[in-house]
C-alpha cells in the first residue's frame, strides 16, 4: 500500500491506483486511434470513446471526492480565506465536470 506523500494531497493514498487507471485509459485511447486507422465501424469506435470518457469521469469523480474529503474539509476546519478559496475551487471543478 502506498503511504501518504509529502504533497499532502487528498489522493496521495490512492496515487498508484489512479496512475494505473490512467494508464489503462491511455491504452483504451490508443486502441481507439488504432480502430480509426483500421477503418472500424463508426458505432464500435463511438462505443469505445464513450467507455474511455466514462473511465475518465470515474477518475475525475474519485479525485473530486478526495479533494472534498481532504483539502476542502481541512480548509473549512481551519476557516478563513483559505476555506473560501477551496470551496470556490471545488465549485468550479464540479461545474466543469457537469458541463463535460
Task: Characterise this structure.
This protein has about 100 residues and is mainly alpha-helical. It has one domain (about 15-100): Methane Monooxygenase Hydroxylase, Chain G, domain 1 (Up-down Bundle). It contains three helices and no strands. It has helices at about 15-35, 40-80, 80-100. Helix 1 (about 15-35) runs antiparallel to helix 2 (about 40-80) and helix 2 (about 40-80) packs antiparallel against helix 3 (about 80-100). It is elongated and about 55 Å long. About 5% of the residues are buried. The model is unreliable at about 1-5 (pLDDT under 50).
Features:
Methane Monooxygenase Hydroxylase, Chain G, domain 1, 100 residues, mainly alpha, 3 helices
Shape annotation: elongated
CATH class: Mainly Alpha
Quote the average pLDDT.
Answer: 90
Number of strands: 0
